[in-house]
Amino acid sequence: MEAVEFPLSTRVRRARQWLVATTAAGAAVVGAAVASVVADTSGWVSVPRTIQAALVLVTLFVLPVGWVAVHAVWALRGRVELFAAAGRYPRRRPTDRQLINHLRNEHPLTPLWWMISIISGLGTLCLGFALPFALADDASLAGVLLGTGLALSLAGLALAVSGIRRAARQGSEDRERRAELWWSLPTAVERRLMIPLLGAGDGAHLGA
Q1: How many Å separate Cα 107 from the centre of its chain?
Q2: 81-130, pLDDT tens digit by residue?
Q3: Is 115 exposed, middle or buried (0-12, 13-18, 19+ CB in 10 A)?
Q4: 3-state class (DSSP) for residue 4
Q5: How far apart are the C-alpha atoms of 70 and 37, rounded to whole Å?
Q6: What separation in angstroms does the CA of 145 have from each of 23, 62, 117, 135, 136?
Q7: Residues whose CB falls within 8 Å of the CB of residue 111, separated by 6 or more in sequence, listed in order
Q8: Do β-strands 2-4 and 92-94 pair in parallel, antiparallel, or remain unpaired?
Q9: What's the CA gap between 119 and 69, in Å, rounded?
């Protein structure tokens, strides 16, 4: 079966540009966070703790979710258009690059839900540990803030678990749809399609 470059719309190309921009911005923020910690530790420049904490928090929690979300939008848009274009190209299949970018065995939203579940789980553990100490010290404002954060973390965790299951079903449907198109793929491409975005090895995320 011949591989051809399926045409993708401006929306997909724009999503790709957003992904590149997010990657560049993330690299800049990570570099700034590392530089601020190194500079303050070595005594070269005095960096306020507030700025350091903000950079570290953004690097650890905001950037991963943001990048994975932008990647999911790009992959989803391309996935929809590749399936829609398949009927116009009988006896043809997308190129290896398009398949790997948009038609992995996992659904594009699966990495996003896993990222949210990891961060929500960490938030639940940390806030759940800190809340009793705040209540014991009669720190009412801190208790309210920690309790609100704990509730949000638990809600995010429940939402992520539901999202992971739903994305798994959608991924199975997409794999069946791809099989119905009779796209014959090289073994190397098949193996690469099994590698998830946030994991490697057996084609499944840890804990899946």
Answers
A1: 11
A2: 999 998 888 888 999 999 999 999 999 999 999 999 999 999 899 888 88
A3: buried
A4: strand
A5: 28
A6: 32, 19, 21, 11, 15
A7: 68, 71, 72, 196, 197, 198, 205
A8: parallel
A9: 14
Beta-bridge partner residues of 2: 92
Coil vs helix vs strand at 138: coil
Secondary structure (H, E, C), 60-95: HHHHHHHHHHHHHHHHHHHHHHHHHHHCCCCCEEEC
Number of residues assigned to the chain: 208
The pTM assigned to this predicted structure is 0.83
Identity (one letter) of the amino acid at 26? G
Tokens of 124: 């639940």
Q: What is the pLDDT of residues 60-77, one digit of tens each?
A: 888 999 999 999 999 999
- Tokens for 59, please give them: 């690097």
